[in-house]
């Protein structure tokens, strides 16, 4: 898989972040089964519980459009280090992952990123399979 497009879209999404409290911009891009890449940024709120992460913003957009299977996800935060999805986002990703070997691209910049599998960043996921037996 060529990661150039998904990396670029995550970097572009980062620039749309609304983060007046932390000043920590995050962007995400998610490839779904329909072949489209949905993007999102973090959106903060004075009531911190009302804040939404970039990954969840992108996932929710894709799900709203009828998708149910993530094929790849890319995330960028601080461009001087690698920013991984938080725990809540990892669990939301798990809800829409059929194949846990999907690529998770952790981006510093357009030329510097890591590619992990979802299994590597969240082994032993708790999913709807666990609830349905």
TrEMBL record:
Reactions accelerated catalytically: cytidine + H2O + H(+) = uridine + NH4(+); 2'-deoxycytidine + H2O + H(+) = 2'-deoxyuridine + NH4(+)
Entry cofactors: Zn(2+)
Keyword Zinc: yes
Enzyme class: hydrolase
InterPro entries: APOBEC/CMP_deaminase_Zn-bd, CMP_dCMP_dom, Cyt/Deoxycyt_deaminase, Cyt_deam_tetra, Cytidine_deaminase-like
Name of protein: Cytidine deaminase
Function per UniProt: This enzyme scavenges exogenous and endogenous cytidine and 2'-deoxycytidine for UMP synthesis.
Origin superkingdom: Bacteria
Keyword line: Hydrolase, Metal-binding, Zinc
E.C. designation(s): 3.5.4.5
Pfam families the record matches: dCMP_cyt_deam_1 (PF00383)
Species per Swiss-Prot/TrEMBL record: Clostridium hominis
PROSITE patterns: CYT_DCMP_DEAMINASES_1 (PS00903), CYT_DCMP_DEAMINASES_2 (PS51747)
Signal sequence interval, chain numbering: none
CMP/dCMP-type deaminase domain segment(s): 1-129
Similarity remark: Belongs to the cytidine and deoxycytidylate deaminase family.
GO MF annotation, one: cytidine deaminase activity
């Amino acid at each position: 898989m060529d990661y150039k497009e998904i990396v670029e879209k995550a970097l572009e999404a980062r620039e749309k972040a609304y983060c007046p409290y932390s000043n920590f911009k995050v962007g995400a891009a998610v490839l779904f089964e329909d072949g489209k890449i949905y993007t999102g940024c973090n959106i903060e709120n004075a009531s911190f519980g009302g804040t939404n992460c970039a990954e969840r913003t992108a996932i929710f957009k894709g799900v709203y459009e009828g998708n149910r299977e993530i094929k790849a996800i890319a995330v960028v935060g601080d461009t001087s280090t690698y920013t991984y999805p938080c725990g809540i986002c990892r669990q939301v990703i798990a809800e829409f992952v059929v194949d846990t070997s999907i690529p998770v691209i952790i981006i510093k910049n357009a030329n510097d990123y890591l590619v992990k599998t979802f299994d590597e960043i969240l082994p032993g996921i708790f999913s709807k399979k666990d609830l349905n037996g």
